[in-house]
Write a structure and sequence with these properties.
- By secondary structure, the chain is mainly α.
- Helices cover 33% and strands 4% of the residues.
- The chain has twelve helices and four strands; from the N terminus they run ααααββααααββαααα.
- The strands form two sheets. Strands 1-2 form a two-stranded antiparallel sheet. It has a two-stranded antiparallel ribbon with strand order 3-4.
- α1 crosses α6, α7 packs across α10 and α9 packs across α10.
- The longest helix is centred in the middle third of the chain and has 13 residues.
- It starts with 40 loop residues before the first helix and ends with a helix.
- 40% of the residues are buried.
């Protein structure tokens, strides 16, 4: 599956920095052909299709429920239906859930995790956990991680680490870079580009009322900067990036400074001392401002959080 996501589709974009040769053996998704004869085959494939084409089921013209999401697809954030190396893939979900998450202050299962995405990244409504759709999504995610030992995360899971800047990320710089490298796909207004049938997005919206809300994981600057750096523009990869670190941080700052839906997150992080360094909403125990928590510089915050934990 080729997913058309964040940033421009330009063959003239060249890597602006070089990375050492990558010899790591990364996780690979199981071959679909191995499902032949599996009693869960149809359910797994149904779940995969929902991940890849979520809007067809739950979007503005959804065939299951209409307008119960913003019209984006799960794979707009979890690339290639959750299988791309460092593309926010699902490789470690089955092996690490259920687990305690500080954001909710509780043990969470896979159903809760999936519904978090529906309510935050898709700015929609939670699925009934016994529905065929939820069962299909969970079956697919479990199948993807079936060979990952319990309690481990394979190489290439999640998002690749990205060094902090020594300065705050700049929305002003990011606006210029966005115009050069992102707007041709996501449009100058950031509202994305829909397909000809107006049923789903060819290029998803990065802000506005049909994008992810401010409770989503990508609204945290470090998550979005990592995602951009190693997956965007279209054609970039973790071992062939097309953006510098500074460009990635600044684009993230610009995009996440734009208007988007609001989510009530008053119940998030019940222990405020456990808030991440880039959680952009106070109050905090570390004494830094909301502005610095959103844009950085982040190293002083991380250092302060570490020192507080030692007390």
């Amino acid at each position: 599956i080729e997913v058309k996501n964040v940033a421009s589709n330009s063959s003239t974009n060249n890597a602006t920095n070089t990375e050492p040769k990558d010899t790591v053996k990364y996780w690979q998704a199981p071959d679909i052909a191995t499902l032949e004869g599996d009693p869960n085959k149809d359910l797994v494939l149904y779940g995969k299709d929902i991940i890849a084409h979520t809007a067809d089921y739950f979007g503005p013209s959804g065939k299951i429920f209409k307008a119960t999401t913003n019209g984006m697809n799960c794979q707009n954030c979890h690339l290639d239906a959750g299988t791309r190396v460092f593309g926010n893939n699902y490789s470690a979900v089955a092996s690490t859930y259920p687990k305690f998450r500080a954001r909710s202050g509780a043990m969470e299962n896979m159903y809760k995790r999936v519904n978090d995405c529906f309510e935050r990244s898709l700015n929609g409504k939670a699925l009934d956990t016994v529905s065929k759709e939820m069962q299909g999504i969970v079956a697919y995610i479990k199948w993807l991680g079936k060979d990952v030992p319990k309690g481990t995360s394979p190489e290439g899971s999640g998002l690749k680490k990205l060094a902090f800047l020594e300065r705050a990320a700049s929305p002003e710089n990011g606006k210029n870079i966005y115009s050069q490298k992102c707007a041709s796909c996501h449009q100058a207004d950031g509202l994305g580009l829909m397909n000809g049938d107006k049923t789903s997005y060819t290029y998803p919206p990065l802000w506005g009322k049909y994008s992810y809300n401010d409770g989503a994981g990508l609204f945290r600057m470090s998550n979005f900067a990592k995602y951009i750096k190693y997956n965007m523009p279209l054609g970039a990869s973790h071992n062939s990036p097309q953006l510098t670190d500074e460009e990635a941080w600044d684009i993230a700052a610009f995009v996440n400074s734009q208007p988007r839906p609001h989510k009530n997150i008053k119940k998030d992080w019940p222990k405020i001392e456990q808030k991440p360094f880039d959680h952009p909403f106070g109050p905090y125990k570390d004494g830094f401002s909301e502005d610095q928590h959103k844009y950085g510089p982040f190293q002083p915050i991380k250092d302060k959080i570490a020192s507080l934990k030692k007390k």
